[in-house]
Amino acid sequence: MVGILLAAGYGRRFGGDKLSHPLVDGLPMAVVAARALRAACPHSVAVVRPEQVDLAGRLAAEGLTVVTCAAAREGMGYSLAAGVTATPEAAGWVVALGDMPFVQPGTLRQVADALTDGAALAAPFHAGRRGHPVGFAARWRDALRQLTGDAGARAILGAHGDLLWRIESDDAGVLRDVDTPEDLLRPA
Predict the structure, then answer these.
(1) Is the pLDDT of residue 136 over 90?
(2) Which of 18, 23, 174, 188 has the fewest CB atoms in 10 Å of its CB?
(3) What mean pLDDT value characterizes the chain?
(4) Residues ≥6 apart with Cβ < 8 Å to 129
(5) Tens-digit pLDDT profile for residues 98-134
(6) Residues 177 and 183: beta-carbon distance below 8 Å
(7) What is the pTM of this model?
(8) In this structure, is residue 91 part of a structural domain?
(9) What are the DSSP E strand ranges found in the chain?
(10) Tally of domains in the chain
């Protein structure tokens, strides 16, 4: 299984470079998310925009292969497609978000394990809500490589929800997306 960290966002609602924003431990948000992903998926890639040189260096130092996606400015679909295209040998992908640093490594591992055990799609659920990361088996390779726009893989999940392997989780981090500075103040 290959981990894909989507880290090409602009952080407009945050008011700047949220992925480099230090958390309580002083580590940048994207580095925390990258470490959790690598703990679950030792072979992981991070997708960034070409101008994110500093962030790319930090993520490479964490052991992720950095994939640069110029089209990322046009939407998350392009970033996800770039990550999948860069890892054609994968048996599946665990797709994590750079602005979700509170997901526990064990949860990421559960998603990877579900794919290994035969799930076509897998995601954690907390308090009845689907969270992140989302896992995709290799059968979705072509569909993922063709993604565009900002919806990411929502269309795949929407059209094939019956194939989704639900992982019930007590990890509230699967729902804790950081879009604004106030989101960092919310309790877990």
Answers:
(1) yes
(2) 188
(3) 94
(4) 175
(5) 999 999 999 999 999 999 999 999 999 999 999 999 9
(6) yes
(7) 0.95
(8) yes
(9) 2-6, 44-48, 65-68, 92-97, 121-126, 129-130, 134-137, 164-168
(10) 1
Tokens of 79: 């970033």
135, β-bridge pairs: 94, 122
Closest CA to 111 of 95, 100, 97, 99: 95
Is the residue at 186 inside a domain? no
Give the CATH number of the domain where residue 25 resides.
3.90.550.10
Distance CA 188, CA 172 (A): 6
**Cβ of 150: how many Cβ atoms within 10 Å?**
12
Instruction: Let me know if 30 is exposed, middle or buried by CB neighbors in 10 A (0-12, 13-18, 19+).
Output: buried
pLDDT at 187 over 70: no
> How far is 5 from 125, CA to CA, in rounded Å?
19
Full domain range(s) for residue 60: 2-179
